[in-house]
Structure formats: C-alpha cells, structure tokens
C-alpha cells in the first residue's frame, strides 16, 4: 500500500509535472495476480486495483490500516473495468461483467477475486475498489452494468454528451459515505465534465477506462483560477482533492469511474465554474 499525503492549493500552484503526477496520478494500480493499493489522506480514501490472471486473489488487510480485515472498519465500492470475473464475499459469489458494481459493507471478512478466462485471447477482470471509513454496516449489494440510476447529460454540440450510471448514492445502493458510478461518453463526445466544478464537502477519484491504448485524457485539476493538468492513459486513476476542479477531455471516447467520499452523498452538491472564468 502506497501512502499519498494531503496537499493544499498553495502547494499545488508551485508543482511541476513530475510532482503533480507523483502526488495525484495513480499510474500502475493493476498488476497480474496482485492487489495494489494507494491510501490517500484526502478523506482517508483507499484505491485498490486487483487483476487476477493465473490465480484467485484474496484482498489483504494491508498493515497500514491497522485492521484484522480490510473491511473491519471500512466500506467500499467495486467496479469491474476489465473482462468477466467474480467476487466472493464471505462465501457468496457475485458474477461481475464489465462495468458492473458491487458494494461491500463494513464487517465483511473474506473477499476473493477471480477472472473468467475463456481462451488465450481472453481479457482478465480488473476490479477497481474505492474504500472509505464506515461508522455502520450496510448490506453487500450487487448491480449489473446499466442497471443503476441512469442520467443523460450534456450535448453533442458541446462535445460532452454522456450517460451517467449512478450505483452507490442516496437513491440507490446505501452506504455510509461512498458515492460511486460510471460515466460513458457518447461517440464523438470528449469532455467528461463541463462546466467544471468543485465540491468542498467531498474528495473525488476518477479511474479512466475503455480508452484506446494510443489515446489519452487531459485531466484538468487545481483551483479554478490556477489550473494544472495531467495526461492520463487507460486504466489510470486521478486523486482529486475537494478544493480542486475536475474535468477532462480525451482524444477518443471513453468511460470513467467516479467515486466520492466526505461530508454528504448528494450527487448534485457541486459548485460550478464557467470555462470563461477559469485560468
């Protein structure tokens, strides 16, 4: 588990490319037959990537969180951004296709991941986990891809026509503080959020996927009047502090997992900034 400590807007204003990427870009979350984790001190959120290839992978407790099991004091959302796979939570098996979501509540003891490989050309499952501390237990709940609360936003004329699938939220899967879902850009649309916004009540993490190998996302971050950017590839994540805008544009259409934790769970609690006011 890698530790990423919290940063202030004043600190970010003086960062160069290498430090920005070291602080906020998670470039290598997925590795064969491993569970890799990043602990960010922005709202004590943990990002985990699990990619089973030749064997099952059991989610470890990680010594940094000082718990007997990973979910002893935590909850988390899991989205499969790879090929078909399964997750076994305390003996119950959930078959997870591409883009499906599983919420695991506080107190779960055993979580085991596997890929369903149908041949040499099969893609392994890639399980992306976003976890936050939890004060109570909510039931483990599964939702198939496309079965959450669907919202259509944006316009093709502004290149941001997108479908939002809300999984873990106030009106869907219940949680203590994790809010999570998937946004898919329509063909020809590239902007994932515009106008850009902040929400000082919650941090957010983005994981980009379904992006061609030779394409990139230009992810905008920083204060609205002091923006910076990260160049992001497929299956890479960005840690976005609560004070930072988050928006981005791709060189091809793509999807991304958005996940938040913090003060409240209202998806629409955000402070927008017109592009003409940004610097």
From TrEMBL:
Pathway: Glycan metabolism; pectin degradation; 2-dehydro-3-deoxy-D-gluconate from pectin: step 4/5. Keywords: Isomerase, Metal-binding, Zinc. CDD domains: cupin_KduI_C, cupin_KduI_N. It catalyses: 5-dehydro-4-deoxy-D-glucuronate = 3-deoxy-D-glycero-2,5-hexodiulosonate. Pfam families: KduI. Zn(2+) binds at residues 197, 199, 204, 246. SUPFAM superfamilies: RmlC-like cupins. Its EC number is 5.3.1.17. InterPro entries: KduI (IPR007045), KduI/IolB_isomerase (IPR021120), KduI_N (IPR027449), RmlC-like_jellyroll (IPR014710), RmlC_Cupin_sf (IPR011051). Its cofactor is Zn(2+). This is 4-deoxy-L-threo-5-hexosulose-uronate ketol-isomerase. It comes from Tessaracoccus antarcticus.
